[in-house]
């Protein structure tokens, strides 16, 4: 019985890795279940044994990606640093992880499924869980008196939106230049929210 469970987990991992590569390369809409079958060597029945649909598979990948990303950041963040120092470190981390394979596919996924669908709501819940982690950093800045702001959720959204907007420059410069841009942008942002 243990061997069968191990083989099932191996199959699931094969499906996950193959689908992730396809979604990253082709996008969500252009990747079919048949593409995933061909890439992984798994039958449709095997895929549907592990995942109810292509949407379900994508949501599983998104949850893994956002959870892993926040865990890595949390390990690197250095809780003994001030919130301001952590925000500069987060800006560097944001640049380091800019081209995560599912970023563009996630945007496309939301357009395809719609925010009001069950899949859209599940995807937004995954994003909101990530936001809660970032809100802890912002709350630390507010609690320590380093930053001013009335709403931790609003300030978190502003900062992440600011960084997301800057990320559009990704293809115009190398990583070192991007980090410098984000550092300057963080200084500018902090000038506006410092007490």
Give a written overview of the molecule:
- The protein has helices at 2-26, 33-40, 44-50, 54-76, 83-96, 103-113, 118-143, 152-166, 175-193.
- With 195 residues, the protein is mostly helical.
- Helix 1 crosses helix 4, helix 4 packs parallel to helix 7 and helix 7 (118-143) packs across helix 8.
- The longest helix has 26 residues, at 118-143.
- The model has no long low-confidence stretch (mean pLDDT 89).
Calculate Rg over CA atoms.
Answer: 19 Å
Write the H/E string, N to C: HHHHHHHHH
Question: How many strands in all?
Answer: 0
Average pLDDT figure: 89
Low-pLDDT segments: none
Number of helices: 9
Fraction of residues in helix? over 70%
Measure the end-to-end span.
61 Å
Tell the overall outline.
elongated
Return the structural class: mainly alpha
User: Largest sheet at a glance?
Assistant: none
- Which strand-content bin applies to the residues? under 5%
Q: Could you outline the blueprint of secondary structure elements for this entry?
A:
Blueprint: H1 2-26, H2 33-40, H3 44-50, H4 54-76, H5 83-96, H6 103-113, H7 118-143, H8 152-166, H9 175-193
Helix pairs in contact: 1-2, 1-4, 4-7, 5-7, 5-9, 7-8
Record keyword descriptors for this entry.
195 residues, mainly alpha, 76% helix, 0% strand
In short:
The chain has 195 residues and is mainly alpha-helical. The protein is 76% helix and 0% strand.
């Amino acid at each position: 019985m243990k061997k069968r469970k191990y083989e099932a987990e191996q199959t699931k991992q094969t499906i996950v890795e193959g689908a992730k590569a396809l979604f990253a390369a082709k996008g969500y809409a252009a990747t079919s279940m048949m593409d995933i079958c061909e890439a992984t060597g798994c039958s449709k029945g095997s895929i549907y044994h592990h995942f109810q649909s292509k949407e379900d598979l994508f949501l599983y990948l998104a949850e893994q990606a956002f959870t892993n990303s926040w865990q890595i950041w949390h390990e690197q963040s250095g809780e003994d640093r001030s919130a301001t120092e952590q925000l500069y470190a987060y800006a560097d981390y944001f640049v380091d992880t800019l081209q995560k394979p599912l970023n563009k596919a996630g945007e496309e996924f939301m357009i395809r499924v719609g925010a009001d669908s069950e899949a859209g709501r599940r995807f937004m819940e995954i994003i909101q869980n990530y936001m809660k982690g970032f809100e802890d950093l912002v709350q630390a800045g507010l609690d320590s008196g380093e930053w001013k702001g009335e709403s931790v959720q609003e300030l978190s959204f502003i900062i992440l939106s600011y960084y997301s907007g800057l990320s559009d420059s990704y293809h115009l410069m190398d990583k070192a230049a991007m980090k410098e841009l984000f550092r300057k942008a963080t200084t500018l942002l902090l000038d506006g929210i410092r007490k």
